[in-house]
Amino acid sequence: MKIKNFIPSDTFKANGLVFKEMKNLKQVVALFGKNGSGKSRLLAHLPNELNARINAINQVNTQIANYLTYAETRKLNLSQEAKLKSLKEDREKLLIDMEFEEGDSLITITGRDININPPDNMQESEYRSGTLNLVTNPNFQTVKQNCAKFIKSLCKSEIAQEYHEKVKGKTHYLSHEEIQTKNIKLFNLLKEVVKEIMNKKLDYSTDEHLTPIVTLDKRVLNPNELSDGEKELLAYCTFLVLQRQEDIPNKTLSLKNKILLLDELELFLHPKAQIDLINGLRNLVGEHGQIGLATHSLSILSVLDRDEIWLMDNGDITSPSIETPNKVLTSLIGEDNVDSLENFISSQYEWASIQFALESLFPPAVIPYKEGDVQQSQVKDRLLSSSQPIHILDFGSGKGRIAQEIIRNQTLASNVYYQALEINKEYHPELKDLPSQLQLVSNINPHVEREVLDTYEKLNEKQYNNFFDYIFLINVLHEIPLNKWNSVLNALLSSLKEDGHLIILEDQAIPRGENAHEYGFLIFDIEEFKILFSRPNQPKVYKHENPKYAERLSCVEIPKSSSIVNPDTINEALTRKKTNCKTAIKNLRAKKNKTAKDGRQNSFLTQLYANVDMALFDGKK
Asked: Do both 244 and 266 map to the same domain?
């Protein structure tokens, strides 16, 4: 189960949680913020909200199943068919914002509840009987007692004895057969969790008297011989296992595909243990599970992806962005201390360069729709400037963030014929419905079906010749293999009407490195675009109105008329880019008091220089 998007109900607002929505949630949703910012309140209200949605899905599924069972023996009448169709539509709406399979559930953990040490008033007799009581009566006074009893039972070998006799096929304790089975399942699950979180093997063995004993990495399990970090992690492992007791009879013991809600899991855990725990939990829930986390931990912050970091303040939420990690850091330790931390950790300039270089070895990520995205706004502004109906091609449309921006503006949507081209079919399931949605509100050829084009070659089909008013390439040109630039760019120019325009939006300082093709990323600015299209004076450049993005996000508008692209213009543009990169690198390295931003820019430029140099070298062969 995974929450993809979350829009809070009025219950949240009544409790001071004023955020409007959380979109594009990842495997980990980490909430940072000062005390009282709303993190714990949000997690506290989530279970009721999500369980209500789960119940609604289950109810709809039950009704659908009843209709389908009925239909196996007799024909549904028109009213029943309409009801079944309506139920399926209701289910689709419920599943828009979450992945869900039957049996999925939530697990809630508070860091204050976790402790391996037994309460002072716990008697030896309670340890001895703990293994049986745990599965017959899970509602002990505190979670601490649960964990302590279970671990002590392991050490006292009750579970090992049952496990040994069960797997050896013996029939002792026949009156407790069901309880034995449950304990064995608990033990097997604990083995799995300990392996993932502690990277240790929990197992059973026998001593010289053939008495079964529990071992941890082939050593007899004795909490007194564990380090503090091992004790803390073992307590978490045990707690996760005990939380699953209700599922034992239902054979859904695994934590895979579950949602874990963790409030301050770092309590009592040293920094390395926090990292081991969060990484282990990732593996346990899997790619279709999710971890919701409220934390103040810098250690956890250090191992999160940027898209997993959310900042809370007075019940409101700041979505993940390039700036969010720094805002979180400032929130946690104060602005004055951020500089001190940077100096302590070592040169951020060096770190930024290395990080960017590493990212350049991996394929590019696809950017999803995000409300308020500056590049989406640039596209919308360009389209709204036209008073006439327009045909547009979204070249390299990814998951359709531009289509989603158009849909949200009724005036714009009615004035646009939208066509998507995306060669990566992995993104088609999310993309395929968007052209149809636009078709319903567009005044331009509303009855013409609009398929998602999946090859560059389809642009050469007759119906697309002189067809589009605008063709948008948004962070796409640098990802097209260089050996296809000539054919693809000329196909795009041929697809434009005579007064049409090619609109190229490129992030001039991409925030993450990427290995887009054999030469890596190749990013041009206005000077190189003029050379590439043989247009020394004509291309228009629209800078973003926000000074923060003005030098980074440019919209280049290239008219079709007299634009020429050929191998010579491509080679000349690459040569100019190499010269400009070299100059920029020299200027950057001459700076004093370099910052983390300078480090990333240095790595960006040196990587770009290498990419261009390789492309030019191979072009001479």
From this structure: no
Domain membership flag for residue 577: no
Any idea what the CATH number is for the domain that residue 46 is in?
A: 3.40.50
Element (H, E) at 353: helix 348-359
* Residue 117 lies inside a defined structural domain of this protein: no
- Residue 383's pLDDT is what? 57
Cβ atoms of 126 and 144 closer than 8 Å = no
Co-location of 297 and 150 in the same domain: no
Whether 172 has a pLDDT exceeding 70, the answer reads: no
One domain for residues 398 and 527: yes
**Band of residue 108 on the pLDDT scale cut at 50, 70, 90:** low
What is the DSSP code (8-state) at residue 453? Answer: B
In the numeric block, which tokens belong to residue 130?
């703990």
Own/partner long-range contacts of 485-488 (Cβ < 8 Å, ≥24 apart): 485/565, 485/570, 486/565, 486/566, 486/567, 486/570, 487/456, 488/456
Q: If 0-12 CB within 10 Å is exposed, 13-18 middle and 19+ buried, where does residue 402 land?
A: buried
Q: 359 lies in a domain?
A: no
400 and 504 both lie in a single domain? yes
* The pLDDT of residue 586 is above 90: yes
When computed from its CA atoms, the radius of gyration of the chain, rounded to whole angstroms, is 30
Give 63-68's long-range contacts (Cβ < 8 A, gap of 24+). 63/87, 64/88, 64/91
Question: Do 233 and 162 fall into the same domain?
Answer: yes
Final residue of a structural domain among 333, 366, 385: 333
Residue 131: name the closest of 230, 72, 214, 59 by CA.
Answer: 214
Q: Are 418 and 441 in contact (CB under 8 A)?
A: no
Query: Residue 289, Cα to own-chain centre: how many angstroms?
Result: 11
| 370: pLDDT strictly greater than 80 | no
**pLDDT at position 384 over 60:** no
Q: What is the pTM of this model?
A: 0.51
- Tokens for 521, please give them: 């990323």
Asked if the model's pLDDT at residue 599 lies above 90, the reply is no
Pair 385, 520 in one domain: yes
**In this predicted structure, which of 117-121, 475-479, 597-601 has the lowest mean pLDDT?**
117-121
Which is it for strands 212-216 and 28-32: parallel, antiparallel or unpaired? unpaired
446 and 402 part of one domain: yes
- The residue length of the chain stands at 621
Residue 17's domain comprises 1-104+257-333
pLDDT winner (highest mean) among 141-145, 247-251, 537-541? 537-541
